[in-house]
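The methods section describes the discrete structure representation at length, but only in general terms. Each protein is reduced to its one-letter sequence and a matching series of backbone shape codes. I believe one specimen quoted in the main text would settle the matter. An entry of this sort, consisting of the sequence and the corresponding backbone structure tokens, reads as follows.
***
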Amino acid sequence: MSKLIVVVGATGAQGGGLVRAILADRSGEFAVRALTRNPSSAAAQELATAGAEVVAADLDNEASVRAAFDGAYGAFVVTNYWAPRTPEEEAARTRAEMELDQAATAARAARDAGIQHLIWSTLEDTRPFFAGRDDVPSLDGGRYRVPHFDAKGEADEIFTQHGLPTTFLRTTFYFDALAGPMKPQRNADGTLTITIPMGDRRLSGIASEDIGRTALAVFRRPELIGETISIAGDHLTGDEYAAALSEALGEKVAYYSPALEEYREYPFPMAVEMANMFQFYAENEAAFTGDRDLAKVRELNPELQSFESWLNLHKDELQAATA
């Protein structure tokens, strides 16, 4: 009989990748229950058509999560810091507080349901790295420097405190962002540029679909319970990302690395937080990339995509985005 894996955020990038990986696995070792706040959405219906059991559950409703976890062997838990929110929700609690609350909800539900292997999608807590620094702005009332990293890192302890058999899966920057919010921008003279404030430092990236595929491999290896697995698909400088994009698009893509002070002044939401994130990536480059040994990640996920291989699959999408 197949072991049931419950996937939180099943219509998102990470959760959706895991659902599709389980459905594509011919061994039949696992079955999948896809959790979503809106089972009638097009994305949820697509998963149902593909063979997933789709169930309504909301990390802000503990009873729904506990019911959805019932009978499962494993659970994949991810929180969405970037989820759309109303002004009232923003006023009630910060996004970091939301993630901590939701992680605690998932942990209690998993404990009570007797989950035997939980994967928590997490990131490094940057606060120890930036401790005592006055050149990195504090956010969330001084609590964090990079809230979407730090809250997840802080939440690691929640799963430990609840005695859950957890593998901590540390992710990184999505290649997908370079076809989305960080796509090459066309300048007034018609040339394309990507903007990343990292100078000549390497930025670890991964195809979001590979997070799910790697998580499936982790579920196959219960000896990884208690371990922290840090993953990436490539480590490239801004110039190397630009060169690969140039090759894929058939036209020159330049790389611009603004000063962090300049980037923090950019007119988009969370520019300060994003600048702090890139500062962490750049200054902590050796440790961050070192923790993400590509050969070891490929042992777990032989289909792991490099940036070049990801680009080959997404040329049409990129060309449409930059037209």
